Amino acid sequence: MIPPGETIGILGGGQLGRMLALAAANLGYRCHVYAPEPESIAADVCAEFTCAGWHDLAALERFASQCAVVTYEFENVPVEPLAVVRAATRLQPHCKALEVAQDRVAEKSFVEPMGGRPAPWAPVADMAGLAIAIDTIGAPGILKTRRDGYDGKGQWRIMTPADIDNVPEIDRALVYEGLVRFEAEFSVLLVRGADGDVRFWDSPENRHNRGILARSTVPASPLIGSQIAEARALAGKIAAELDYVGVLAVEFFATEAGPVFNEMAPRVHNSGHWTIEGALTSQFENHIRAICGLPLGDCALAARGVVMDNLIGDDAHDWHQILSDPCNHLHLYGKAAVRPGRKMGHVTRLVL
Question: Which domain holds residue 300?
Fold first, then answer.
């Protein structure tokens, strides 16, 4: 157990790290952020900040030696340099989760033996391989980068085989997925303690706009409700197989044939932001509790229902109107520049 007063290291300097640090402060911990970018909205609320590259092993070692435990706020941290962190202090969750989640082919191959059902897929290395994948799986489908894609980035929709002509020259490893006919999207949010204790939050129904999460609603539709048990079983298997500690999010498509696995995120997740006000214990607090070896908090709803909307781009300028409704809970992330498609904050409304 890591007692309050110790320092928690956070790899990554974005809004998830910011909200983790705020939750940690409420429990009496100090936080130290490590990120390559000099401007860090997480560092704004932390006691210390190391600005250095992911492959600066000396800086990583100094950072880790000052922390009782280190965690991460996004899954694209390079895995190999983390050996230095693991040698100096505790790293939670285990970096095996990063290895799986960073590669879409590795991810799908990992969940299928557990009974997970992703969309039909095939790895793609070149244009000839893409043509074979489309011929085998069919169209429509989506071509995705195997690594580093998020919020709809690194994706090309292929509606007919002729759309292959619109794909840029393939210069990296990709994966082609058959398009899933789904009724809704949802996520399973769980927290697992070092002792194996697993707790689930209610699964939100998620609506996306241009590949970016726009709204999460709890409770979800009856169709999703009928598929949550199966989805939770798979998420629990994933966490156990990885000996996972912390918050894990697994995204699904709700289809007529049952839940189809989309992807996993080994970290706190945008679709769980509603838990700050909407659950008895937020995803951020329970992540801190888990990695520090503290008892986990109750994940039950704090209201009859919750709606969380992301504030994307210019939406953040509506802060005055949002605050004019006393039922709204506004979270602005402190980002200096507003850009189209950039997550600037979120607002949560409770249904009492």
Answer: 184-351
